[in-house]
Design goal:
Blueprint: H1 2-12, H2 16-41, H3 54-57, E1 62-63, E2 84-88, H4 100-114, E3 118-123, E4 134-136, E5 139-143, H5 153-165, E6 171-175, H6 181-184, E7 190-194, H7 198-212, H8 223-238, E8 244-247, H9 250-258, E9 267-269, H10 283-292, E10 301-306, H11 315-326, E11 332-337, H12 342-347, E12 353-357, H13 361-370, E13 373-375, H14 386-393, E14 398-401, H15 404-407, E15 417-420, H16 424-456, H17 459-474, E16 480-481
Parallel strand pairs: 2-3, 2-6, 3-5, 6-7, 7-8, 8-9, 10-11, 10-13, 11-12, 13-14, 14-15
Antiparallel strand pairs: 1-16, 4-5
Helix pairs in contact: 2-8, 4-17, 7-8, 10-13, 11-16
Pfam family, one: Glyco_transf_4
Domain Glycosyl transferase family: 290-439
GO molecular function: glycosyltransferase activity
Length: 487
């Protein structure tokens, strides 16, 4: 009888493990969706006096460790105290095509070195080829690569310990997990800048899933989502291995405090900046760039996109949206700068698209000046893409998804550009708005973008904020704002 009952039970209901695994995708998406809405509409915590509005941000007085808004909004004066900082970066940009995190690191550390601080960077070349170490004044870049061209952590630490023995570092800084958490927890005074966190990556995977499999008919297509929650939990557990956390968007800082449960005083916002002397409005360079790449003179509007041409950067989305737009508006032209699998697909769209390949750094400003609108179709709602702020510095409005990191910091209103939900229908509607506005209105929005970028996204403001941040961590006197030397 017992055997009969057992058999009956098994045949009448699925095993508990089967039910569990079938529920994972549903529960994952439900939890992420609810949490995403929670973050969008619920304020982070009680906001200290003077930090809730932009007007009050410029009038802030108090301890900088209590600041919830980007440090870039404040104006820090000169300092005579110099620092010795160790920095770990995934790669160091060499030639064309390096990622934004690497270009950010090079801009930041060069700027800090120019301010008189001794900066020692432990990294590898972005082209994964042999290169000698770089020593330029106060900037020292040590290449410590393994056989695969990635950072050899043991070798990097041998060099690090040797430089540290000649005079202890005031602070250690790492770009994301370039300094692994299992190393970081054994190193005193470690600050990390997060260019993306797994919580945001899970949102990216949701958007990619909805775009590639809108009806949910592909078997096994949600496997990555099933694996995402354990990876998120693992990340939450190791984040305290780093002493201080810098986020490049306010939305990411909210997540670190609210979801990752880090102490608010250990979480700070410093926005990315680019060289404001290099990215400037230049009509002549734009005309020259158009002539060089044979852009038709009768093009009504020229859209531009730059970066790695891969799926998670949203190129399937842009491909579909532009294909839909171009047959209704044949005068609209698309310039595609970058390399990747989608380069060939774009060339299939015909003469209204020009695929340029990767551009050298010296060509980027000309590219931005040659377009009317910069498009960033990314499916990765994380960080602050340098290409967006480079285009803004060149006086171009932007078209980007309505992620919190973008709509909360970059495209604050319609006067700065256009946002859309990460789906084809919404993207096409935004593109139609661009066409309706026309070149003259786009120029006006571009000038507003230039002003906005100069107020927040400059290398000078970024380096000044990082400088004060490290000084504050070394000496609490510098945590007070404003000091007598501050502007």
């Amino acid at each position: 009888m017992m055997g009969s009952k057992s058999h009956s039970s098994k045949s009448s209901s699925p095993p508990s493990s089967f039910v569990y695994f079938r529920c994972i995708p549903i529960l994952t998406v439900l939890v992420l969706s609810l949490t995403y809405l929670f973050l969008l509409f619920v304020p982070l915590r009680h906001v200290p006096r003077g930090s809730s509005s932009r007007l009050d941000e410029t009038q802030f007085e108090g301890d900088l460790r209590d600041v919830m808004f980007p440090w870039n909004r404040l104006c820090f004066g000169p300092t005579f105290e110099k620092l010795k900082i160790a920095a770990f970066s995934k790669t160091w940009p060499i030639g064309a095509g390096p990622g934004g995190m690497e270009r950010h690191a090079a801009t930041l550390y060069r700027s800090l070195a120019q301010r008189g601080h001794k900066i020692h960077v432990f990294t590898v070349p972005s082209d994964r080829k042999p290169h000698g170490d770089i020593h330029e004044g106060n900037l020292h870049v040590y290449f410590a690569a393994n056989d695969h061209g990635s950072v050899n952590c043991s070798l990097a630490f041998e060099i690090f310990n040797g430089v540290n023995a000649d005079g202890a570092f005031d602070y250690v800084h790492t770009e994301s997990v370039s300094l692994p958490h299992w190393r970081a927890k054994n190193v005193p005074n470690v600050a990390v800048t997060w260019h993306g966190i797994w919580y945001e990556i899970m949102h990216s995977k949701i958007f990619q899933e909805l775009l590639s499999d809108p009806k949910g008919v592909l078997p096994g297509s949600v496997n990555e989502l099933q694996e995402a929650v354990p990876r998120l939990l693992d990340e939450i557990r190791f984040f305290p291995s780093y002493t201080q956390h810098i986020c490049i968007s306010k939305s990411a800082a909210d997540v670190l405090v609210r979801i990752y449960q880090l102490p608010p005083r250990d979480v700070h916002v410093i926005l990315n900046g680019v060289d404001e002397s290099r990215f400037i409005p230049d009509t002549e360079s734009g005309i020259h760039f158009r002539e060089k790449h044979r852009i038709p003179r009768n093009a009504t509007i020229v859209l531009g996109v730059a970066g790695r041409l891969v799926q998670d950067k949203g190129h399937p989305l842009l491909y579909e949206a532009f294909a839909s737009l171009s047959w209704r508006h044949p005068g609209v032209f698309l310039l595609v700068a970058g390399s990747g699998p989608w380069a060939r697909r774009y060339s299939e769209l015909g003469p209204s698209v020009r695929v340029l390949g990767p551009l050298e750094p010296s060509e980027l400003s000309g590219f931005y000046n040659a377009i009317d609108v910069f498009v960033n179709p990314t499916l990765r709602p994380q960080g602050l893409d340098l290409t967006i702020i480079e285009a803004m510095h060149c006086g171009k409005p932007v078209l980007a998804p309505n992620y919190p990191s973008i709509s909360g910091t970059v495209v604050l209103n319609e006067g700065l550009g256009y946002t859309f939900s990460p789906n084809v229908k919404s993207f096409v509607e935004a593109l139609e708005s661009v066409v309706r506005d026309g070149p003259e209105k786009l120029k006006g929005k571009g000038m507003a973008c230039k002003e906005h970028a100069l107020g927040l996204f400059t290398a000078t403001k970024m380096a000044s904020a990082y400088e004060r941040f490290f000084l504050c961590l070394k000496n609490p006197r510098y945590c007070q704002y404003p000091l007598q030397s501050d502007c």
